[in-house]
Amino acid sequence: MAEAATGDFRELFHRGQLTIGISELSKMTGVSPRQLRYWQKKGYIIPKNQDEPGRARIYTLKMVIKAAAMSNLLQTGYTLKAAAAQVDERMRPAQTMYHVLFDRYQGFQVNDDGEIIVDLGTFDPDPTQDLFAKLVDERPVFILKPKA
């Protein structure tokens, strides 16, 4: 199998590498920077660099989605507190999927037939095997292989 570059893809999406500043967040959500700072003060949104006082605020993709969703709910009549709670609840399944996919993702390979095989790392119930996935007729199929 041909080994493909894995680090670039994983690092791009893992641990909040995609970030924007407060001005861009304001433009994307239609929420003023002043209002975004208030949301931050209340703990509803958290800049990635919150532990670096005096530096310009930067926000992860997760916070962009949260702020946009909160803005939409506010426009439909939710209070700020209720909008934040509703968004947190709606984001829980997405956060679970993110962790399942990106915490397990080890990379991918392209086999001799051109199939993409995704490496999901050690199979937890049996650490002597690795778990892989591929698509067959656009459906995931899982494969266990003994560790190399």
Task: Describe what this molecule looks like in 3D.
This protein is of the alpha+beta class and 148 residues long. It starts with a strand and ends with a strand. The protein is built from five helices and seven strands, in the order βαβααβααββββ. Strands 1-4-5-6-7 form a five-stranded antiparallel β-sheet, with helices on one face. Strands 2-3 form a two-stranded antiparallel ribbon. It has helices spanning 7-13, 22-29, 33-42, 61-75, 80-104; strands at residues 2-3, 19-21, 58-60, 107-110, 116-122, 129-136, 139-146. The chain folds into two domains: 16-103, Multidrug-efflux Transporter Regulator, Chain: A, Domain 2; 107-146, no CATH class. The radius of gyration is 20 Å and the shape is elongated.
Strand content: 15-25%
What is the CATH architecture term of the largest domain?
Answer: Orthogonal Bundle
CA(first)-CA(last) distance: 14 Å
Q: Unreliable segments (pLDDT under 50, ≥5 consecutive)?
A: 2-6
Structural class based on helices, strands and sheet pairing: alpha+beta
* Dominant shape: elongated
Query: What Rg do the Cα atoms give?
Result: 20 Å
Q: What order do the strands of the largest sheet run in, or round the barrel if closed?
A: 1-4-5-6-7
CATH fold-level topology of the largest domain: Multidrug-efflux Transporter Regulator, Chain: A, Domain 2
Pfam family, one: MerR_1
InterPro entries: DNA-bd_dom_put_sf, MerR-type_HTH_dom, MerR_fam
Keywords: DNA-binding, Repressor, Transcription, Transcription regulation
Protein name: MerR family transcriptional regulator
